[in-house]
Amino acid sequence: MLQTQQGAAVLVSKLLKTPPLKALTLFKSSIEQGFHQTHQSFSIILDGLLSSNSISVAQSLILQLVSGRITSPHFTVPSLLQYLTHSCFLNSTPLYEIVINAHLQSQLIEQGLIFFNEMIDKGLVPSSNTFNSILSSVIKNGSFEKAWLIFEESMGKEFLDMYSFGIVIKGCCEFGDLNGAFEALTKLKQMGWRPNVVIYTTIIDGCFKYGDAGRAKELFSTMSVEGIIPNQYTYSVLLNGFFRQGLKTDGFELYEKMKLDGVFPDIYTYNSLINVYCSDGEISKAFELFDDMRHNGVVYNVVTYNTLIRGLCQEKRVLEAEKLVDQMKLAGLHPNLITYNTLIDGCCSAGKLEKGLTLFNQIKSYGLTPTSITYNTLIAGFSRAGNLSKVVDFVREMEERGIFPSKVTYTILIDAFARSNDMEKALEVFSRMHKAGLTVDLCTYGALIHGWCSQGNMKEASKLFLSMSEYHLQPNDVIYNTMIFGYCKESSSYRALKLLKEMVENGMIPNGASYCLTIEVLCGDGKWKESEVLVSGMMKFGLKPSVSSRDLIQKAKNVTT
């Protein structure tokens, strides 16, 4: 014990006489040699580092202490930090800041807050960087309400700056508190500060994220009034927001304004516009933008090519899509799984199953791993072609790869078996789906109901239709129209008419086929008056009764009068 005390005294004496960085080398060397540090040795080394403004080195030392990489039987981390922060000869503000930041970096947010509050209670002023690190850490930790409270308590304090507002506003938008974001914006203005483009863009993005395009547009107008010039990112956020909410006119008008304002579209803006054109089937316009990108020096990325490939595949222009993949490779870009999944889907939709299968084998040869989307695409394609043996092979391979069939997989299989009139197999898959713990949806029910209706088994179809409420599902217009078709097929005019009326009462519009078929069976039962009411209903919804429907009504009238 005496030797330990003497050793500690010798080390402390040496540290006091040595310049800070050399003292640090001595300090580290003593640790490597198994020497246990004391409160005093730690104080001396920290004081030297802080006095020489070696803040980052001091920060590293405290971080090692907090993370448990420096230990000693002479102290615990809390006792040493308590000793250091209450030492009369240490410069308290930098010390507190490195202690706070060390805790934040170690994800010890609560302990960091304790030292922050202690610092404030002592009348010490943290730097804006330290305060902003606290706000960011608390928000990232999921404690947004706590961060807001810290922010409000710091109003008017000298360490609060524009970045503090930016952090809180971003947090509000991430946690769905748009009103909080606008409140923070108001507070910022009340302090006499002018919001910058980043803050406005953050709130605009938040507005779109939560479906409030109106407020986003108002903010954009406010920016113009206040003379804040939107940047490329602002325009990208607005364009994506408008397009996501289906406000295409607003999006394209903004694109024109963007060009007039001299802001050049970036890759994200171009990709967003190309996506809209491809989704609308306007491929030629999408390729015009593709050419514009090249002329304006904007380099294409994988997303650009994938979007155009999807557009071509939707139009069943698979050969052109394949050529685009070749062009993509020549440009030095590597097609990814999305590229191949899109091509496979295009081939399957166009009936080119063998080509789809070739692409599937290429995926595996290129070292890419097929996903449930890849398998579901192939399963759907081969199901439509009636090749159920190949479908079963895909499902088996899928499971062997450890990819569990999804709700989509099961629904595709149910539909395939139902369309091939194998309702026993369809119900077997339906049962497996339940056992797998997957929830059925409208598509699943639609496939089964269509299968029973096609077979003329309205008793089973009706059971399924009525059981939907057990899963809190409401039939959609497709299911209603399918049921009406089934009842009309068995000439049950009463049930068909009942469902048709129910559809209208539930705010749905029956399709023309449902009206015409119901009119046909009603006329067959001599109910021409009910048929005429249906004709009026059709016209009210903008549907035109067929000539044959009117002829049937007239014939029914002639028979009964």
Give a summary of the structure in a few sentences.
By secondary structure, this protein is mainly alpha-helical. The chain has helices spanning 2-17, 20-32, 39-51, 55-66, 77-85, 92-105, 109-121, 128-140, 144-153, 162-174, 178-190, 197-209, 213-225, 232-244, 248-260, 267-279, 283-295, 302-314, 318-330, 337-349, 353-365, 372-384, 388-400, 407-419, 423-435, 442-455, 458-467, 477-489, 493-505, 512-524, 528-540, 547-560. Helix content is 73%, strand content 0%.
How would you characterize the overall build of this protein?
By secondary structure, this protein is mainly alpha-helical. Helices cover 73% and strands 0% of the residues. It has 32 helices and no strands. Helix 24 runs parallel beside helix 26. Mean pLDDT is 88; it is low at 1-9.
Which helices and strands, and how do they pair?
Blueprint: H1 2-17, H2 20-32, H3 39-51, H4 55-66, H5 77-85, H6 92-105, H7 109-121, H8 128-140, H9 144-153, H10 162-174, H11 178-190, H12 197-209, H13 213-225, H14 232-244, H15 248-260, H16 267-279, H17 283-295, H18 302-314, H19 318-330, H20 337-349, H21 353-365, H22 372-384, H23 388-400, H24 407-419, H25 423-435, H26 442-455, H27 458-467, H28 477-489, H29 493-505, H30 512-524, H31 528-540, H32 547-560
